[in-house]
UniProtKB/TrEMBL annotation:
Pfam families: BD-FAE. Residues 63-258 form the BD-FAE-like domain. The keyword Methyltransferase does not apply. This is Acetyl esterase/lipase. It comes from Hymenobacter actinosclerus. The keyword Hydrolase applies. Keywords: Hydrolase, Signal.
Length: 306
């Protein structure tokens, strides 16, 4: 009997973390920019065993509340990557949320809608609508989650990095029919091997095609090229990329960093010579832990102060 209890102990200890999670629908009523369709959400296992989601119809936030003894009032909304085709919810979502909880940060993994002509009148707007609503919702319910409404950041990987960068540069005129008065501007950005530009030579072709179509106009290319939308009001930004990234060239991060410099936006960038694309929390080619660098940056800017 004693051995059975000892075997169950790890499950008992892990239970509070699982119970602390909840799923929060982004919209309480009609979902904007949505068309009734036969599209159904697909959840599958990625090659590394983590969860991957496609064809999102009901966008939501998966809440990871920081432990009460560590919570510092900062929140981060995580935008998983997947080329605007799928969402790497495990590797670039849940695992990251757990690391942020260790820093006292409450995390929200955003399951945002992916561009889909069958389910959306304007597929170019659906992801950004959801990202803006996520910031709005967390800010409106900040007290409920024990976070401060002026300490809400966005963290995005790959195409999720493009979405986070878009949210950090397109907040002045929020999308949607009834945007309300709550600001959708993130207080800081964390961009990890992000897609930034839509320019032919440097963009991730799959992300651009899925978001803008096969033949985007020059106006669309400019509008969704993050480096061309940076202003003095763009939030402070932390960037991570690998020089040998064959999917999303490192110049994407360089362009955004240079734009931040031009507009006097505080920015910090960490580049690795190797690591490729999609390494998530751990770049196996180095002993350096970019999450520790992020820890230092958050601390230096006062976002970890209780």
């Amino acid at each position: 009997m004693k051995n059975v209890l000892l075997a169950l102990l790890p499950l008992v200890l892990a239970a509070p973390l699982a119970q602390a999670q909840r799923r929060l629908p982004l919209y309480s009523g009609v979902i904007p920019n949505a068309t009734p369709s036969a599209v159904q959400e697909i959840t599958e296992k990625a090659s590394d065993g983590s969860e991957r989601v496609r064809q999102v119809v009901q966008p939501e936030l998966v809440v990871y509340r920081a432990p009460l003894d560590k919570a510092n009032g900062t929140a981060v909304i995580i935008c998983p990557g997947g080329g605007y085709e799928s969402l790497s919810m495990g590797k670039e979502g849940y695992q990251v949320a757990e690391r942020l909880n260790e820093l006292g940060v409450t995390a929200f993994v955003l399951k945002y809608r992916l561009p889909n002509d069958a389910a959306q009148p304007d597929k170019t707007q659906a992801p950004l609508l959801d990202a803006q609503q996520a910031v709005r919702l967390v800010r409106q319910q900040a007290a409920q989650f024990n976070v401060q409404p002026t300490r809400i950041g966005l963290l995005g990987f790959s195409a999720g990095g493009h979405l986070a960068a878009s949210a950090g540069t397109h907040f002045a005129q929020p999308l949607g029919p009834n945007p309300g008065t709550t600001s959708v501007r993130p207080d800081f950005l964390v961009l990890v091997y992000p897609v930034i530009t839509m320019a032919d030579s440097l963009t991730h072709a799959g992300s651009r095609t899925r978001l803008l179509g096969a033949t985007p106009s020059a106006e669309q290319v400019k509008l969704y090229s993050g480096e061309l939308q940076v202003s003095a009001q763009t939030p402070p930004t932390f960037l991570v990329h690998a020089q040998d990234d064959k999917s999303v060239p490192v110049q994407n991060s360089l362009l955004f960093y240079q734009a931040c410099l031009h507009h006097a936006v505080p920015a910090e960038m960490h580049l690795y010579p190797k690591g490729g694309h999609g390494f998530g929390l751990r770049n196996a080619t180095t002993k350096d832990d970019w999450m520790e660098r992020l820890h230092n940056w958050l601390d230096a800017n006062g976002w970890l102060t209780r």
